[in-house]
Amino acid sequence: MKDYDFKVILEPDEMGGFVVSCPSLSGCYSQGETVEEALRNIKEAILLCLEDMEAEGEEVPDPSKVLVESVVITK
Question: Radius of gyration over alpha carbons of the chain, in Å?
Answer without folding.
Answer: 14
